[in-house]
């Protein structure tokens, strides 16, 4: 009996824990926060916004993230999820911040928290969201080789490839959908 428990624990330790950023690790959207800060810093950003958006969402995100440094002490971090990450690290599991945000923002948050072994983020040619994020995580860890924490229907393809799901502030419809495709490990509800 002990041997089987140890084998299960060893297997579990090999399952990476991958965490989404927006509305999951932070209870807001990093692009929104960056955009508001950039406008406060320089209202002329509003004039450039339509031109940046015309070049694509990734270009817009890049330009906005170049203009500001997020005030990390002001971000509403999900303390319940941070506890999950700390526990995973204590178990020896790899932890990954996997986000559609820019590399600059993702690395800034990862450096601040000191909880991630790896950061995966969007770039000018790839929006790391939905199927793109799923493909990247499967490339890194294999099908069912990771648990994934997310918050919305865009995360469905990722959960379908995940070992299990952690849902943050999910609707009943999202819970039902995820239950059909993978095991739900944890539901996290926060006050916003």
Percentage of residues in DSSP E strands: 15-25%
Determine the CATH topology of the largest domain.
Answer: Rossmann fold
Rg calc: 17 Å
Shape verdict:
globular
Gap between N and C termini, in Å?
43 Å
The CATH class of the largest domain is Alpha Beta
The overall pLDDT average reads 92
Low-confidence stretches: 5-9
Within the largest sheet, what's the order of strands? Answer: 3-2-1-4-5-6
In CATH, the homologous superfamily of the largest domain goes by the name HAD superfamily/HAD-like
Task: Please give the count of helices.
Answer: 9
Count of separate structural domains: 2
* CATH architecture verdict of the largest domain: 3-Layer(aba) Sandwich
Structural class by helix and strand composition: alpha/beta
- Total strand count, please? 6
Helix/strand order, N-terminal first: HEHHHHEHEHEHEHE
Helicity range: 40-55%
Any chance you could write out the topology, listing elements then pairs?
Layout: H1 2-13, E1 16-19, H2 30-41, H3 45-54, H4 57-67, H5 79-90, E2 95-102, H6 103-113, E3 118-122, H7 130-141, E4 146-150, H8 156-161, E5 164-168, H9 172-179, E6 183-188
Parallel strand pairs: 1-2, 1-4, 2-3, 4-5, 5-6
State the main characteristics.
9 helices; Rossmann fold; 192 residues; 6 strands; alpha/beta; single chain; 2 domains; 49% helix
Care to describe what's here?
- The chain is an alpha/beta fold.
- The protein folds into two domains: 2-27 and 75-188, HAD superfamily/HAD-like (Rossmann fold), CATH 3.40.50.1000; 31-72, no CATH class.
- It contains nine helices and six strands; from the N terminus they run H-E-H-H-H-H-E-H-E-H-E-H-E-H-E.
- The chain has a six-stranded parallel beta sheet, sandwiched between helices.
- It is globular.
- The protein starts with a helix and ends with a strand.
- The relative contact order is 0.16.
């Amino acid at each position: 009996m002990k041997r089987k428990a140890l084998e299960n624990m060893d297997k579990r330790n090999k399952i990476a824990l991958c965490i989404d950023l927006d509305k999951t690790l932070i209870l807001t959207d990093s692009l929104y926060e960056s955009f508001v800060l950039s406008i406060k810093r320089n209202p002329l950003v509003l004039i450039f916004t339509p031109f940046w958006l015309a070049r694509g969402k990734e270009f817009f995100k890049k330009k906005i993230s170049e203009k500001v440094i997020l005030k990390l002490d002001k971000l509403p971090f999900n303390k319940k999820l941070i506890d999950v990450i700390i526990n995973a690290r204590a178990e020896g599991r790899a932890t990954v911040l996997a986000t559609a945000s820019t590399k600059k923002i993702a690395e800034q948050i990862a450096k601040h928290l000191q909880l991630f072994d790896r950061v995966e983020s969007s770039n000018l040619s790839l929006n790391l969201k939905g199927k793109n994020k799923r493909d990247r995580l499967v490339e890194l860890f294999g099908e069912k080789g990771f648990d994934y924490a997310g918050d919305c229907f865009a995360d469905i393809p990722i959960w379908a490839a995940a070992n299990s799901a952690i849902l943050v502030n999910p609707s009943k419809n999202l819970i039902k959908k995820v239950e059909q495709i993978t095991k739900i490990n944890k539901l996290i509800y926060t006050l916003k």
